[in-house]
Design a protein that fits this description.
Strand order of the largest sheet: 4-6-7
Number of helices: 18
CATH architecture of the largest domain: Up-down Bundle
Distance between the termini: 32 Å
CATH topology of the largest domain: Fumarase C, Chain A, domain 2
Radius of gyration: 26 Å
Shape: elongated
Number of strands: 9
CATH class of the largest domain: Mainly Alpha
Number of domains: 2
């Protein structure tokens, strides 16, 4: 996969991060990088005072640095800013960060030597994954602490994950892979850490999981409808065309497709006039979540090809300009919206779980128990779903509305975007577990109704789910079932069923 700084896609990120596709650098990008670097070196030779090249950082921006100390300035920057704490990001997130930083530097606005970018690409191609603590970023000036831990590895410091996923000193692993550390020159340390690549990496991978989870939630909801003998009339296209939201219209069409040929669904007035909102309003609620994901995708696709450091080198105009592209507000708000959109997927799923297990709301065996009273069946699975949904409500509080001044008030407004991205990821993991619980309950319900009466699409989903989790014939430790089905939903490279 060729990087050029301008046309990276979400699908390409997925291929590099998860499938270890080899990365190369385009010739055109190399030329831009070399021209940008030449401007930096000219500025150094002329003793021009430019932030980040021959000045201190943050509140120290007015402190001019002697020419003989410029390289040490950049090395000190990496060492001092590597203040991350907490559990490390996953290997996938770290790989995505390396890829995104290389892509940003290839735009030719950062003034680094080509070797710096080549070393980032070498990390990817040799499977060398930096250990990057997940906490410590304010989201402006960019993801300073996380990216400093990434940069440490280029210097032969810090830690990497080995092939077994164990944390090892970079100084022990790099020589085994033939990786030669580098010494940073003027501007390069700042260029490596001034950016939004931590929040964006988490955001991209979270979005990809959210997209698949939301689609799976529709398919599972269709099976729930069969288990409850729900009314298909509410999904009539005329209803949704009358409102006009395209995402809502598309969800309704997909729900009709999943349930095509089913003998378990009913028509308006056959068994009841209307279903509860958690059934009847699936297109309206999930359609709104799709709208949120569309917005998030748009912002991520821009950010993965953005120049987000400071200052920026404009070779055509011969200018070096200081600005604030490192500020993570666009991604911070997108991540907060993603949290809300996905939390609602779990909210409505948990209400359908309640309708599947509550004997006051259906004519199924109470709590889907094989022996009601003696055995509790799915009773406590609903508790677990309710707990996850409640946790999501706390996590969904927007991170982007908070700001704490830093660097002696020079950096007096920050985005907290990386916190938002981390919380969005946790919400998606919780949502997947909730819809896994709904799937367990739905498979039990359709067994009571009659598998042979199911739609082809939902029957395919049922059969695949049953390969992972057997029927409930007696009480057991259902935690194992929930986790097994959750991992299946996450790891399957295919969608559970066709949309058609």
């Amino acid at each position: 996969m060729e990087l050029n700084g301008h046309h990276l896609t979400l699908e390409e990120i997925k291929r590099v991060v998860h499938h270890f596709e080899t990365v190369t650098i385009s010739d055109e990008a190399i030329q831009s990088v070399m021209e940008s670097r030449e401007m930096v070196e000219t500025a150094v030779d002329k003793h021009d005072v430019i932030y980040g090249i021959n000045t201190g950082f943050g509140k120290f921006s007015d402190v001019e640095i002697d020419e003989e100390d410029l390289d040490q300035l950049q090395m000190n920057l990496i060492y001092s800013h590597a203040c991350g704490v907490g559990e490390p990001f996953s290997k996938s997130v770290s790989r995505a960060m390396v890829l995104l930083r290389a892509n940003a530097l290839l735009k030719g606005y950062s003034g680094v030597r080509l070797v710096v970018i080549e070393k980032l690409v070498e990390l990817l191609n040799k499977g060398l994954t930096p250990v990057i603590p997940s906490q410590g970023s304010l989201g402006a000036s960019g993801d300073l602490a996380p990216l400093a831990h990434l940069a440490l590895v280029l210097l032969g410091r810090g830690e990497v994950f080995n092939e077994a996923g164990e944390r090892k000193k970079a100084s022990e692993v790099l020589p085994l892979k033939g990786f030669e550390p580098i010494t940073l020159k003027a501007k390069e340390g700042l260029a490596l850490i001034n950016g939004t690549q931590a929040m964006t990496a988490v955001g991209v991978l979270t979005y990809l999981e959210a997209e698949e989870t939301l689609l799976q939630s529709e398919q599972i909801a269709a099976m729930t409808m069969e288990g409850l003998e729900s009314i298909i009339s509410a999904f009539d296209s005329k209803i949704h065309q009358a409102r006009g939201h395209q995402e809502q219209i598309q969800v309704a069409l997909r729900m009709q497709g999943y349930l095509k040929g089913s003998q378990l669904i009913t028509r308006q007035g056959e068994r009841r006039v209307q279903d509860a909102y958690s059934i009847r309003c699936i297109p309206q609620v999930l359609g709104a979540s799709w709208q949120t994901l569309d917005y998030v995708k748009e912002k991520l696709e821009i950010e993965i090809n953005a120049a987000t450091d400071n200052p920026l080198i404009f070779t055509d105009e011969g200018e070096v300009l200081s600005g604030g592209n490192f500020h993570g507000q666009p991604i911070a708000i997108a991540m907060d919206l993603l949290k809300i959109g996905m939390a609602e997927v779990a909210n409505i799923s948990e209400r359908r779980i309640e309708r599947l297990v509550n004997p006051q709301l259906n004519d199924l065996p109470p709590f889907l128990s094989p022996e009601p009273g003696l055995q509790s069946g799915a009773m406590i699975m609903q508790y677990t779903a309710a707990s996850l949904v409640s946790e999501n409500k706390t996590l969904a509080h927007p991170a982007s509305v908070d700001s704490i001044p830093s660097s002696a008030n020079q950096e007096d407004h920050v985005s907290m975007g990386t916190i938002g991205a981390r919380h969005a990821n946790q919400i998606v993991q919780n949502v997947r577990r909730v819809v896994a619980i709904e799937l367990i309950c739905a498979t039990e319900a359709v067994e009571v109704r009659g598998i042979h009466k199911m739609a082809l699409a939902t029957q395919q989903l049922y059969e695949k789910a049953r390969e992972v989790v057997p029927s409930i014939t007696q009480d057991r430790a259902f935690s194992n079932d929930i986790e097994a089905l959750t991992h299946w939903l996450q790891d399957s490279s295919e969608k559970p069923v066709s949309q058609n």
